[in-house]
Amino acid sequence: MTDCLHECLLLDRVSKNDREAFKIIYTQYLNDTYRYLFLFTKSREACEEIVQSVFMKIWERRAHLGDITNFKSYIYRSAKNMLIDEIRRKKVGERAFAQFEFDHWSTDNTDAKFPRVNVTSQNNSATSSYWLQNGKYIRLKTLQFGYNFPKSMLSKVGIDGVRLYVAGFNLITFTKVYFLDPESPVYDGNDDYPQQKVINVGLNLNF
Predict the structure, then answer these.
(1) Which CATH number fits domain 1-131: 3.30.565.10, 3.40.980.10, 1.10.1740.10, 3.30.70.20?
(2) Nearest in space to 170 (alpha carbons), one of 198, 202, 201, 135
(3) What is the model's pTM?
């Protein structure tokens, strides 16, 4: 039996709630996934946490494993996406917790912006109108600067047109929304793929 066929049979068993088959898949890909993530993070603790999360998601979504054509690529892609989410969450979390740390309720700060900090209580995560935010924002989505070289300069070298340009996407955002990107879908406890700032430099030549 080829490795590919054997893997397909294992995935089929996993999709049917076979825990023993899942353990085999887990053992087979655990170390490779860990080494793949370590190339990016250089952190054993981060790798271990993300790897466990990847396999937990695979088990949760086991009913759809039959749609995957390349399981190794699927695992690596899932791990890398989780790493990106973790990096984004950490950056947002650092900013958010800084606000909590310096402006939470206490007997000395009764007009604070945020509630009393309590690591054991669920009060701060309870659904409440307090957490409603004004989602208005202004974002510079696209901006492009270009320069067309004069034809009198180009005719000497046999070129009809040259355009040099610099283009940007998602360059700057003005908003009072905190913790989330204002363009994020409805927050359900899962992070969406983060918005990216992109800057391109290009040269168009016409002969």
Answers:
(1) 1.10.1740.10
(2) 198
(3) 0.42
